[in-house]
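FORM 12-B: Structure-to-Sequence Request
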């Protein structure tokens, strides 16, 4: 049986590879045979027996076939590709047969007076239509794309009953790669009903009937779902091993931005479990339009998005400072492409500058020449294990890079200075978090010092923006999980209980910009980021969203394994956003102001002088001692892991042993 099926597929594929002229000839010959058969059947239904082949039947056949060929040729019916046609062509065929029948009967009436002839001429167009329609539908079903390939069919459900889902259902009827088995909608309006012959289930009914239906994918067509609802639905489907995909809009399909077979994955933002924050574009425009804006770390994930959002507000100049040549080239190239698309942005000048924020002379030169009114300070070393292993340079960049930028901002009367901080600065267990917390303390103390006892407010308003992990940013967990899935696994999770706060890059950039407009000086702003997400749950969800299954003891034949590798040096199970309690609300309900303790300038400056001495001497042990004295809640559980410190200790031990 399998051999016959392969032979049949091979024959059909060969037919499809014939030149178009040969295939048209086959269709015309088939239509002539159908005409002859329709005449034959018409006589049978009229007389009760098949007629003899004589001059009368031959004449009718010649009239019929000639007339049909002329009408089909002039109306373009022979240009149709029937294996891609749907039932709509039957309407065109019916109209053609109506015209054909009228002309055919007139010809027979004029040329012959026989009663039998006229009866046959009246009946034959109906039989002809039936045979032609059946033949073309049969060819469409037989040669339909996917019919000739041996594939496992995906069993699909569509969430939401609306016009978009109806259109997708029509498209799915024409593919054998997938089968639509149900719609899913919880509204009472559709409960227990069918749409186009497809039953409508509630979510509970879908889960109960999952095994019976064999459903593998659920397509989302309901645009009214909030991110929180979508995340809840995603979690429920992941628990039941059903893959979720977004249905592309009809507009995307028409414009070519999506293909039916390329159903989209859930956006990264939908993994947040909350709605995206809304920000006032008007406020950002008031702040940035016509301004000279300096963005440090411009080539990083946050820096690049800050550059994008700033450009859209039509500033006078964007100064992009980054130590990485390639990153700086990439962001500048992207912004240039954006400007070419929108000519209104051409007036904004882009100035990419190679350099380090720790180079005081270079920073002074930038401030003196261009006099920016706003500084977004995103330049920092943020990878926890790397900073842990390269302590001296990480601390130098994160703390004293901030102090260099802040001093220059005060010197040249910058209006707003915004530090991009991190939730890892709260009760840190690693050098990166501690360095960012000291950078915060520096700006808080500098603001208090410059207020001159509250009499004179400083020209420069310093503020900090603290947020958690950024989805899909370079080095973050989601791109890493995607790469591991593409490589066949395993997905590596540091601990089964580790969780993190997440936000989108777009939210992070808007938050930083909004903070500048809200700042009066010295604030630490945090975003209401909802509930933290467990990384293990995120790993499971991404595997199911990729259409795969988890390989574990319960399912040894699964696709992707999740491996627990242990916490990295300096890593915490849980991150926090606040040191103090009862954060203060702002004009934006999603942005809060922390009540974190600060340190007076005299005490801080003394500790910073000690820290600079230790950095100059590359004394990693002394740096950690300053962290312990200065940073509230700092706890170094991993010990000192700086590469140079460990190598020096190893050399001393080897020398002593010898």
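FORM 12-B RESPONSE
SEQUENCE OUT:
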């Amino acid at each position: 049986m399998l051999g016959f099926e392969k032979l049949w597929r091979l024959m059909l594929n060969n037919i499809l590879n014939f030149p178009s002229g040969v295939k048209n000839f086959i269709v015309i010959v088939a239509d002539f045979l159908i005409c002859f058969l329709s005449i034959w059947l018409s006589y049978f239904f009229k007389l009760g027996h098949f007629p003899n082949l004589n001059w009368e039947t031959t004449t009718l056949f010649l009239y019929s076939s000639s007339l049909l060929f002329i009408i089909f040729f002039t109306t373009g019916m022979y240009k149709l590709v029937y294996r891609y046609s749907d039932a709509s062509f039957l309407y065109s065929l019916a109209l053609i047969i109506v015209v054909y029948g009228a002309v055919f009967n007139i010809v027979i009436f004029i040329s012959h007076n026989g009663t039998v002839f006229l009866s046959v001429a009246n009946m034959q167009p109906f039989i002809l239509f039936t045979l032609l329609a059946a033949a073309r539908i049969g060819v469409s079903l037989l040669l339909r794309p996917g019919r000739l390939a041996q594939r496992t069919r995906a069993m699909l459900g569509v969430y939401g009953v609306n016009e978009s889902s109806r259109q997708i259902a029509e498209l799915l009827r024409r593919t054998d790669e997938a089968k639509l088995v149900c719609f899913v909608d919880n509204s009472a309006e559709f409960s227990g009903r069918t749409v186009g012959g497809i039953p409508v289930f509630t979510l509970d009914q879908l889960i109960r009937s999952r095994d019976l239906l064999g459903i593998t994918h659920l397509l989302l067509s309901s645009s009214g779902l909030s991110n929180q609802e979508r995340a809840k639905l995603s979690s429920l489907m992941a628990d039941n091993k059903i893959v979720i995909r977004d249905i592309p809009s009809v507009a995307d399909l028409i414009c070519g931005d999506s293909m039916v077979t390329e159903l989209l994955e859930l956006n990264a933002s939908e993994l947040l479990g909350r709605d995206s924050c809304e920000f006032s574009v008007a406020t950002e425009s008031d702040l940035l339009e016509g301004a000279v804006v300096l963005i440090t770390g411009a080539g990083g994930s946050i820096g690049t998005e800050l550059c994008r959002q700033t450009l859209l507000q039509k500033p006078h100049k964007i100064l992009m400072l980054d130590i990485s040549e390639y990153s700086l080239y990439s962001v500048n190239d992207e912004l240039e492409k954006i400007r070419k698309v929108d000519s209104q942005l051409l007036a904004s000048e882009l100035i990419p500058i190679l350099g380090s924020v720790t180079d005081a002379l270079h920073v002074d030169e930038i401030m003196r020449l261009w006099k920016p009114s706003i500084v977004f300070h995103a330049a920092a070393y943020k990878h926890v294990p790397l900073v842990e292993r390269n302590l001296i340079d990480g601390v130098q960049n994160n703390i004293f890079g901030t102090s260099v930028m802040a001093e220059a901002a005060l010197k040249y009367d910058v209006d707003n200075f915004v530090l991009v901080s991190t939730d890892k600065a709260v009760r840190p267990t690693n050098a990166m978090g501690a360095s960012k917390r000291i950078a915060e303390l520096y700006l808080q103390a500098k603001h208090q010092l410059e207020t001159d006892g509250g009499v004179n407010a400083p020209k420069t308003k310093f503020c900090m923006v603290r947020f958690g992990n950024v989805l899909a940013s370079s080095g973050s967990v989601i791109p890493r999980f995607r790469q591991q899935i593409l490589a066949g696994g395993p997905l590596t999770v540091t601990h089964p209980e580790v969780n993190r706060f997440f936000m989108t890059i777009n939210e992070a950039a808007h938050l930083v910009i909004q903070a500048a407009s809200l700042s009066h000086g010295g604030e630490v702003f945090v975003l209401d980021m909802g509930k933290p997400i467990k990384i293990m749950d995120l790993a499971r969800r991404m595997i199911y969203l990729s259409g795969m299954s988890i390989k574990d003891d319960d399912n040894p034949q699964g696709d992707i394994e999740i491996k627990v590798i242990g916490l990295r040096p300096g890593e915490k199970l849980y991150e926090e956003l606040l040191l103090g309690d009862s954060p203060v609300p702002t004009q934006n309900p999603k942005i809060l102001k922390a009540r974190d303790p600060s340190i007076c300038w005299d005490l801080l400056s003394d500790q910073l002088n000690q820290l600079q001495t230790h950095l100059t001497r590359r004394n990693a042990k002394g740096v950690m001692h300053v962290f312990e004295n200065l940073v509230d809640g700092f706890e170094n559980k991993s010990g000192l892991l700086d590469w140079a410190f460990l190598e020096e200790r190893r050399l001393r031990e080897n020398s002593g042993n010898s």
